[in-house]
């Protein structure tokens, strides 16, 4: 009797362990799914003043989560859940460090471009100072990886100061694969010089073998403070720009509405395409958003507008989808509302 009872207890324990593992043990797959929205008045302040106007501008985000067997199974039945490998989550970055730096860089750049465009539109002073080019990541087979590090800032090429990102490409036009390029680099508080052997690209032209981004400082006539730790990527650019403009002008461009959206922002105020648009539409709808700005499809490969409208129809949302190509288009749309 004791042996049978013990066997039964062991069987139950094994079953319980397997059941817990099925629901909670992480496997080597990730699930991307709808996340939520965040009111930007809680993340940004100008001169330490709160945004007191009615309504809200919100960013939208998606959620990445390491999957269990249960979540992997569930993903096959959830229309807006996608299963991804670790490499797909990294999105082409060579490792986790590069991915994290890239996401932080894009998010900080989105904030800078938002401030710059909002201040210009509000007739406030904002100037950009170019400091060089960030090393964001490396391409496969890059020889520069042996000497450069992610986060380095390239300030000079062959002793020529980089005035903008075009300076580097102009220098590379006159070089051949295999040539040495002298770089001056800021790494923390140190200034380093190094010779990098150039690679060959698909057109047999010389390239450094790195992914770069502009390192800039932004000076403004009023103090802008962000409290947005834990977020990353470039997709909040448009919504940050609208929130900052509202705080600067107090024009009540929201008209009391709950507004969300997505889209990158560049120096000229252009709104760029982003990823996960289907999940962001679902997130915004669940949060009760009334109006959603989406990047307008302009190039053949663009699909944000098309997917947003398709998903909006599928989920029968009452939320209005508004495609925009620029910050000015979004601003004009809001100002023309009654």
Structure explained in plain terms:
It is an enzyme of class 3 (hydrolase). Belongs to the peptidase S16 family. The active site is at 235, 280. Residues 232-337 form the Lon proteolytic domain. The protein contains nine helices and 18 strands. It is of the alpha+beta class and 338 residues long. The chain has two domains: 30-92 and 116-124 and 222-336, Ribosomal Protein S5, domain 2 (2-Layer Sandwich), CATH 3.30.230; 128-217, PDZ domain (Pdz3 Domain), CATH 2.30.42. It has a six-stranded mixed β-sheet, sandwiched between helices. Strands 5, 6, 7, 8, 9 and 12 form a six-stranded antiparallel β-sheet that branches. A hairpin with a 5-residue loop joins β10 and β11 (206-207). It is globular and about 85 Å long. It starts with a helix and ends with a helix. The model has no long low-confidence stretch (mean pLDDT 91).
Please specify the SSE layout and strand pairing.
Layout: H1 2-24, E1 30-39, E2 44-46, E3 56-66, H2 69-75, E4 82-84, H3 86-90, H4 96-121, E5 126-138, E6 153-157, E7 160-161, H5 165-173, E8 180-187, E9 190-197, E10 199-200, E11 206-207, E12 210-220, E13 224-226, H6 237-249, E14 258-261, E15 264-265, E16 271-272, H7 277-286, E17 291-295, H8 304-314, E18 320-324, H9 327-335
Parallel strand pairs: 3-14, 14-17, 17-18
Antiparallel strand pairs: 1-3, 1-4, 2-13, 5-6, 5-12, 6-7, 6-8, 8-9, 10-11, 15-16
Family: Belongs to the peptidase S16 family.
Keywords: Hydrolase, Protease, Serine protease
Domain PDZ: 132-189
